[in-house]
Amino acid sequence: MLLTRRELLQRGCLLAAAATIGAGSKSSAQSTAKPLATLNPNLLTRFVDPLPIPALAKSVGSLPDPSNQAHSLPHYRVEIGEFESKLHRDLKPTRQWGYGGSVPGPSFETRSGEGLFVEWINRLPRSHFLPVDHNLHGADGGAPDVRAVVHLHGAKAPAESDGYPEDWSVSGTSALYHYPNQQEAAMLWYHDHAMGITRLNIFAGMLGTFFIRAVRR
Q1: pTM higher than 0.90 for the full model?
Q2: Is 75 left (phi over 0), alpha (psi -120 to 50) or beta?
Q3: For residue 184, how far is the Cα from the chain centroid?
Q4: pLDDT, tens digit, for every residue of 133-189?
Q5: Residue 66 to residues 21, 115, 118, 178: CA-CA distances in angstroms?
Q6: How distant, in Å, are the alpha carbons of 63, 80, 162, 182, 201 from that of 156?
Q7: Is 136 helix (H, G, I), strand (E, B) or coil?
Q8: What is the CATH number of domain 55-213?
């Protein structure tokens, strides 16, 4: 059977596409033949562990209020580090990164209009235990794999205390942030914000709660 040049090209493209799909299916089948060992949470006994309640952060002193030097504000120090904790009665301790040695980290309790200082101290290891994708923006410019910066989500904070993604610090350094809390009562949360690796650090456990209560009447 004679074929025109157009028909030959069309049939050739169809054969190539079919071969590609077949190869992809075979590759997929091979890749799923030996799945990675994962934990099935449905196999764990439920409701056997008490609900973990994060401890309240406690101030270690006071520092002058930037807007009124005659007035002092509470000063907190929170370390960011690696630790192990049991996530379930029947599981071995799990490696985590977090604030103050727990996940979630210590909870802050303050009131609207009552500011405070938090000194975030980076004590993380020198290498990340989760795979860093260096193709992502912020993780592709020679920055160290382990870095952190804290962002208080929803807070009206000064720019230097906002925890913007490029303002990260490395292990062995610290950053002093001022939270004026000049806003209405709210439940906020603080978390890592480092450009390019935020998802890894939060997945590792770097998050906590921050309560701004209403003004006393």
Answers
A1: no
A2: beta
A3: 26
A4: 999 999 987 899 999 999 999 999 999 999 999 999 999 999 999 999 999 999 999
A5: 65, 10, 14, 9
A6: 20, 23, 8, 7, 23
A7: coil
A8: 2.60.40.420
